[in-house]
Amino acid sequence: MIRGYFDDMELMIRNISKILVKDAKCYIVVANSGYKGILVPTDLLLADIAVRYGFNVCNIYHARKIRSSSQQMHILANDYDNLMRESVIELQLNNNI
Question: Among residues of the chain, what percentage have pLDDT more than 70?
C-alpha cells in the first residue's frame, strides 16, 4: 500500500516537472502517517523524490499536528508528537528533465 502511494506520487511529481516552466513553484500538502508501528515521514520522502525531477525544496512548512488511529498512537507513543504532522512542501522547478 505504501509502495503504491509513493509510486503514484512520483509519477505525479514527474508529470508536473514536465509541464511547469523553469522557476515555477508547486505546493504539495501531505500528512505523515504511521503504518504497523513505523512512522512514515511522507513530506521528507516526497521532497527527496522532487529533487530527482529537477525541483529545489524551498521549504517544508509544518501546517498542523495530526492524530493517527488509537492503535497506531499507542505503538508510536515516543515519536508521535514530533512526526505526526500535516505539511506543505514548497517546490521550485530548477530545470525541466
Answer: 79
Q: pLDDT at residue 78 above 70? A: no
Q: Partners of 27 in the beta sheet?
A: 90
19 alpha carbon, distance to own chain's centre? 20
Bridge pairing between strands 85-93 and 55-65:
antiparallel
Spatial separation of the C-alpha atoms in residues 38 and 18, rounded to whole Å: 33
In one-letter notation, the amino acid at residue 11 is L
Across the strands, what pairs with 21?
none
For residue 42, give the C-alpha cell. Answer: 511522507
d(CA 35, CA 50) in angstroms, rounded, equals 23
Please say whether the beta carbons of 61 and 88 come within 8 A: yes
Which of the pair, 38 or 95, is modelled with greater confidence?
Answer: 38
Q: Which helix (H) or strand (E) segment is 91 a member of? A: strand 85-93
